[in-house]
Fold:
Amino acid sequence: MEATTTVTALVRALAARELSALEATDFYLERIAATDLNAFIESDAERARAEARRADDEIAATGHRDLLGVPIALKDIFCTNGVTTTCGSRMLENFAPPYDATVTANLKRAGFVLLGKTNMDEFAMGSSNETSYFGPVGNPWSAKHVPGGSSGGSAAAVAGGLCPGALGTDTGGSIRLPAAFCGVSGLKPTYGRVSRYGMIAFASSLDQGGPIARTVEDLRLMLGAIEGFDPLDSTSADRPATANEADQRELTIGVPEEYWQGLDAGVANTLENARQVLEGLGHRLVPVSLKHTRAAVPVYYVISSAEASTNLSRYDGVRFGHRAAEYDDIESLYHQSRTEGFGAEVKRRILTGTYTLSVGYYDAYYDKAQRVRRLIRQDFLDAFETCDALVAPVSLGPAFERNAFQDPTEMYRQDQFTAPVSLAGLPALSVPCGLSDGLPLGLQFICPHFEENRLLSLGEAFQRETDWHRQTPPNL
Ligand code: GLN
Structure:
C-alpha cells in the first residue's frame, strides 16, 4: 500500500487477495490519525474496521465484487444512518440521521468501507473551506493555501493520501475547484444523474453529487457505483448508466474564448500546453463563444441563495438541529436557534435569498436571473451543435492563501468558470494539468447532458498522455 494507491489498484489487489480490506483500512486510519489537515469531521476507526472485517469475510466466502472492502470517505453532506451528518454547521453538530442518502445506500450495496465524513464549507457555501464550523482544511501542497471548497475535505483527503477516493457535491463548482486546487481529479455529473435524496439541500436545482479520486479511471468506477434513477428524487433522470467502453473517436473540442481571458501568464502557458496535448491526441480545437458567461456568477448567486433561503428555513430549532438553550416564546426560539446555529456566510445567503424572493424584488432579481440562466444554457447547447466537448480552465489560478479576500464577492468570482456549467446542468470534469508556483492547476472538460462516457474517455486519454495526476504534494 502507498499513499498514492488508486481505487482501481485497490480493487485489483483485494480481488487477487494480495491485500485484505482490513489492512487497507488500517493503512488509511493511521494516516488520518497522523495528519493535521483537518480533512475529516468524523472518522470512527472501530466502525471502519468492523466494516472491513465484514468485507474480508465476504471476499473469503464468495469472492470480490464491485467496491467491496474499498475504504472511501463521504463529504459530511450525505446522510449516513446513525452516523453524524453535520454539513459543516453548528446547526447539525449532533444530527445523526435515521436513514441513508441514496448515494450512501448505493455505496453500501457496492460493499464500500466508510472511512469517515469529510470537512466542508458550511452547508456547502464557499470556495475555500474556510466557512466550516469545524475549522478550515489544509491544502496538502501548502499549509498556508486553501484546498478549495466546498468539498475541500474530500479533495484534501485524496491528495493527502488519507483515502483513495471520496465523494463531494458540486452546486457551482464545489467538486471541480477543490479537485483543481489539490491536484486530483473530480467529476460533476449531469444534473439528475446522481440522486439527491438524503444529500442535504443547498440549491436544489443545481446540487449534484460526484466522485473525487486520483485518476479518471477511478472516477468512472465510483460513478458506476453511485449513479442511477431514484424514485425518491423527483429530478432524478431515468437514463441508462454510463457505458464502460472507451469512446476513442477524434473529437471537435470547443475553446470558449470567454474562459481564456484574464489568466496570468504562467497559468495561461500551462493551460496552453494542455491544449497541445489534446491536439496531439488527434482532437480538433476550435474557438467558440459563450456570450453570457459574464452573467453567470451574479445569476448563480441570486438563484442559489434564493433556493438556499427556502431550503434552510427547515432549521428552526424545533424538529431537529441546534436549539438555543434560552428563549421566551416560539419567535425567540426560532431567532435564537438560527442566530447561534448558522455562521456568517450562511446568514448572508439566507438574507440575500429572502430579499430576492420578496414581493417587489422577485421580478427584478429572481425571475430575471432565471431568464438569463436559460440564455447561459442555450449558449452551451449552441456550442454543442458543432462541438463534441469544451475545454476550459477550472479557475483563474492555483489555490489562494487563507483569508485572501475581505469582500465576499471576490470569493464568488472564483466560481466564474464553474458556475455556468452548473447553471446549464452539464457534466464536467477537472483534471490536473500542471503546476504554477508549485501549486496544481486544473483543466476542465465539459460535455453535453448525459455524455459522461465521452467526458470520462476524454479525461482517461488525457491522463494516458500526461503525468500531472501522478504528481504528489511534497512530503507525501
Ligand atoms: N463556491 C460556490 C458557492 O459558494 C459553490 C459551492 C458549491 O458548489 N457547493 O456557492
Summary: The pocket of glutamine is lined by residues 124-127, 150, 170-174, 202, 304, 415 (CB under 6 Å). The longest helix spans residues 362-386. The CA atoms of residues 123 and 275 lie 35 Å apart. The longest strand covers residues 428-436.
